[in-house]
């Protein structure tokens, strides 16, 4: 998997549109695309019979490059995830499901972090900490109870002066300010790159008290740019919640315990709304929504390095950017870790800080490339284009998931419905809707209540006993 991912990241993307004008190039791309989609379809075909779904399009025009829609991509990802989970399960069994002593090292907020094994080497062995049923449910301690109803999301937010407001559903409270902002001159011209402080010597600050958060806000208000990332949990929660916020300046890394400080996170509004402090994220589409949902935080003056990479036709991933610009290989094994765990193991803290530690330097390098690019001369400066795209992203609004009892199951199950009888499809719809209702009630994700494969298995087999139903739901 690593070799394939590395090969994919190394594919050249420059001048793609230019080469696409040549028929021979288009044919080779189409042939390779067909081969890749056939391979992905074969992966889906290896699933148990009741879960198999074909992703091959029957009516792709002969000269068109085949692509996958969002549902098909989800099917492929679920298939690959299923195989990887099986491998993880078998490896855990072989290992006796024991974490290494290094992983068991816990870091309490407020202390310094040192990550070393017995030989003095830094970094972390061991596998990612998967979602655990044994973790106490943080949402039980939230000052404001979770609302999993169908009622529209109503934001509660602070303005830049710290005054609290209750917003209007589907209305962005800072849309006017975002639309009229003029970027500070320093953000629009090339400036000397500032290499990141070596990770080993960079100060790391943990924040888990209101006083500590206030002190952090006071320091951040003196910065001109900060890098931000979030760690979110959405398996044992219907709407999900943010567990950690990482912030990096040019001189330090900061990790904020969002579970302890959930009710106080709006203190950051004065920073996030400050028009002269640039907030740098990577791939922030979900982060923008999570900030609104969990903390009533909105972004004014924001730059998404993922959008910059796309504008430059470079691979989108943060791992690629850190490797390409900083010559550092990110270990992504904790990407699916359970960020509810407290105290947080040291290896997870180490992983989390890396997501922002290098980001401001990557921004420097990308800005220079965007300023020097002439590929978008007809539209204007490519840097301005990325700022405009980032601005549009910051205007997006969080919306609570809504269930249409008559239609939602079709979008989720898609092609899997093709071979079902009318009775089986009715069962699929009712089980799907039941799953959503239970998830809202117990505050779990629908997948934690019953996997989609279980919904299809019940619909296909039409079990008539409890024992047979449970067989369809394995694993529960």
UniProtKB/TrEMBL annotation:
GO terms for molecular function: 3'-5'-RNA exonuclease activity; nucleotide binding; single-stranded RNA binding. It is found in: Nucleus. Keywords: Exonuclease, Exosome, Hydrolase, Nuclease, Nucleus, rRNA processing. The keyword Secreted does not apply. It comes from the Eukaryota. One of its GO terms (biological process) is nuclear polyadenylation-dependent antisense transcript catabolic process. One of its GO terms (cellular component) is nuclear exosome (RNase complex). PANTHER family: EXOSOME COMPONENT 10, POLYMYOSITIS/SCLERODERMA AUTOANTIGEN-RELATED. This is Exosome complex exonuclease RRP6. The lineage of its organism: Eukaryota, Discoba, Euglenozoa, Kinetoplastea, Metakinetoplastina.
